[in-house]
């Protein structure tokens, strides 16, 4: 739902502010989770707020980063760029979950809260780093939508399979 609403905002302000806010919201969700986790479950005070913050952050940042990456490409390369961006995202998520399970999941006991807090802290730090990338995204990142040959770039007419 959040991703659908970001299209208008991205057109008006660019992709950068959305990635910045999304990254910071996800980081806030991870910090909330690390700060309020306890041995006794508290859905309303612990899990729900961190999930809402994290979900809003992911909704703002991930789709916007994918759109920014694809939008910056010439129209004839957008499909390939989208496939590459989504493949890297899927592989990164898979490796991240596998590392988390390998490090923390082998010995989950009530004292494991410290290990999980470290993992959530790392996730918050990486999310802040992603937010910083959002600051670097330009507002006009959609100026290259013409097919490569139509732009007049000397080297842009070579096919994707050219090994140069």
Layout of helices and strands, plus pairs?
Layout: H1 2-13, H2 15-36, H3 43-71, H4 78-104, H5 113-136
Helix pairs in contact: 1-2, 1-3, 2-3, 2-5, 3-4
Structure commentary:
The chain has helices at residues 2-13, 15-36, 43-71, 78-104, 113-136. It is mostly helical and 164 residues long. Helix 1 packs across helix 2, helix 1 (2-13) packs across helix 3 (43-71) and helix 2 (15-36) runs antiparallel to helix 3 (43-71). The termini are far apart.
Q: Any descriptors?
A:
164 residues, mainly alpha
Specify Rg, calculated over alpha carbons: 19 Å
Question: Which term fits the overall shape?
Answer: globular
Annotation field: number of helices:
5
Largest sheet: none
Number of DSSP-assigned strands: 0
- Report helical residue fraction: 55-70%
Order of H and E elements: HHHHH
Mean pLDDT: 80
Q: Report, as a whole number of angstroms, the end-to-end distance.
A: 42 Å
As a percent range, the share of strand residues is under 5%
Q: Structural class from helices and strands?
A: mainly alpha
**Uncertain spans, ≥5 residues at pLDDT below 50?**
141-160
The gist of it:
With 164 residues, the protein is mainly α. It has helices at residues 2-13, 15-36, 43-71, 78-104, 113-136.
């Amino acid at each position: 739902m959040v991703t659908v609403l970001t299209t208008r905002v991205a057109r008006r302000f660019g992709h950068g502010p959305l990635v910045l806010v999304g990254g910071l919201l996800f980081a806030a969700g991870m910090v909330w989770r690390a700060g309020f986790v306890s041995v006794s479950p508290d859905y309303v005070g612990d899990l729900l707020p961190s999930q809402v913050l994290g979900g809003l952050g992911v909704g703002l940042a991930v789709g916007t980063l994918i759109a920014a990456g694809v939008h910056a490409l010439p129209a004839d390369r957008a499909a390939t760029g989208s496939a590459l961006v989504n493949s890297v995202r899927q592989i990164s998520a898979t490796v991240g979950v596998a590392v988390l399970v390998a490090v923390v999941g082998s010995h989950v006991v009530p004292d494991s809260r410290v290990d999980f807090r470290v993992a959530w802290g790392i996730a918050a730090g990486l999310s802040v780093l992603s937010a910083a990338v959002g600051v670097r995204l330009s507002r006009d990142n959609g100026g290259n939508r013409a097919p490569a040959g139509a732009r007049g770039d000397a080297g842009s007419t070579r096919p994707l399979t050219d090994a140069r």
